[in-house]
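Objective 1b: paired records.
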Amino acid sequence: MAPTSSRRLGSLVQSDIRRMTRECDARGGINLGQGICNLPTPPVVRDAAIEAIRSQKSLYSYAEGILELREAIAAKLERKNGITADPATEIVVSVGASGAFSAAIHALLDPGDGLLILEPYYGYHLNAALVAGLEPHFLELTPPTFAITEAALEGAVRPGTRAVIVCTPSNPSGKMWSRPELEALARVATRHDLLVITDEIYEDITYEVEHISPATIPGLRERTVSIMGPSKTFSITGWRLGYAVATPELAGPIGLVSDLFYVCAPTPLQHGVAAGFSMPQSYYEDLRASYARKREWICAALDAAELSPIRPQGAYYVLADVSRLGHERAIDAALQLLDEVGVAAIPGSAFYRGKTGETLLRFCYASEDEVILEACRRLEGWRS
């Protein structure tokens, strides 16, 4: 018998995020689906990476990252997140935030352990957990507020639940966890001795609500792995750089697994990101203002098309209710929109297991202004 794939991959298929990019390319449409962050990289980040290449800084770095970058991350954590972390023992640079997540779940959880995942979820969190042999436990949040209560969290914890993933700001909803919600999480996590793994990759893209790092909540620092990265902030999604922050007892095993999986993150690019952390506060203010402007454009266009948008608090995605199109499957609504308008979105079924996802599409507005404005023009003129 010829070899086949492992049993762990038996239920996995390629995400509709990838499928819609291919469908969009085949039709020559505007891709508001995949969150590739198609914007210019800040010159200070770009030029520092180029100079590192020219200076032959192309060898392996330490598995946990170059010290210069870890020190820059520690200063940023203190300044912006309110987290004090030792760059020598509590920070691990990895191959993207997704790489840090994979290293964390393999290092700190065992096959068969339960991971609590909130819907709508980021598909990579779910699929990485399945490949690691974890058992997903779910808690569905209700649009448009996606509110979280202590009772709901408590009810979602099973005897085998060992950890919970907290994505704030959320992909795909843009929801940000409030302080009362995080305090409720701390009480539940303490009662059940849960590991908390965060995904804070969109922390610099927020609007009316300020980002709160879960590790700053009393009772969470010692049990939290904070996962962050510069890819969205500096528009370098293809550089594949992220990092995990945790106590030495947690960061040590994460570093071991990250070394085993990836050896190290790309060394010259680490130098570029280290330089980026020195940029002034005005850069981050301009970044927020730019995305806020795009958010207003896309929400207004979706309103005009009678595809009710759910205004995000953070990140650069907006979910829209497409129930009026009358499709039982969100993928069919997405394909209709692509065929008739030339704009690609992601079916909500990529983020939900049940019927709620079949009523939603996700639109990404991380592109140049002219691209977003053309997509909005098309949407505003569409009447299905």
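Objective 1b, second protein:
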Amino acid sequence: MKKYYTRACNFFYGAYSKKLVKNKSTLPLIGDNSISFNQIEIFIREKEKVKSRIINIKDIHKLPLVIKKKVYEDIKKITAKRKFLGKKKFMLMGVLNLTPDSFSDGGKFNSLKKANKRIKEMINDGAEIVDIGGESTRPGSKIVSQKNELSRVKEVIKQFKKRFSKTLLSVDTRKSMVMSFSTKHKMDIINDVSCFRFDSNSLESIKNKNLWKIIHHMQGTPQTMQLNPKYNNVLLDIYDFFEKEIVKFKKFKYHKKIILDPGIGFGKNLKHNLMILNKISLFHSLGFPILIGTSRKRFINQISGKYDTKERIGGTLSSIIYSFSQGVKIFRVHNVKEIKQGLLILDSLISK
């Protein structure tokens, strides 16, 4: 059985994009006239074979009926506005690791005073979301007990909305105990890298809550994910994973409050990561906002070699700018101010 996928491509920006949309020469990407497209790449998958072709949007009507119907359905989703973003052109999710062993900043913010200082700093630097985690999920990390993890994040989460009421609170956890506690303290986003598979009670604890749920892709577990990741086609395999998870959420209340994260570095080698980022606009056809977390990831070192740096700001910003140019709007980052600066400059340049 053949399956078809639609990816928006050949993008235009700024005032020129708006002019093309007005003239109906292009279509707006996720409801934003300042970035539009006039071509699509159609993937055709049959068992393990994948073919693709690029066509102009004006030629869609010439396609065979079965493909044409699917493409038009996808384009409705590709061009629809994303409620989560509101009027913002992009959103930054600042990372706060309350762990002793995270790969880049473990142990730096483990006291309540240091954590709150860091949160305030990230908000001042331009973060609209703060993602708080009490367990490292770096490759090879050890599992932390529910009680231990909750003890690490409890006080910060408890006080968060009292101190930072206008900032979205995201909690990075795989544990139902932490999720249940966080929902009582007005958590806005749940970020479970296991996609609610690690803890059998996790989905039950949040399924009917008025929260944004991040559907995160990971092959394996943090302990096994980087041993030898394999895919038939990493891009389409992740798309299929997202599609199945979205269907699963449809039976729950607030089922439209979903954010997609392809999980850069979570069960992917360098080739996989680059393929995902290179054609990340494919995921727009699922109809939900896309988040990426490339900040300080290992693939930057694998490419830059001797030019690697501790914080990998250059590689992080480069991957974010490229993703932004394909319509990705949410970025999970450590260096908030530098990324904010880079995206503001980019937006100003392409908006002319």
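Residues 2-81 form one domain. The chain has eleven helices and twelve strands.
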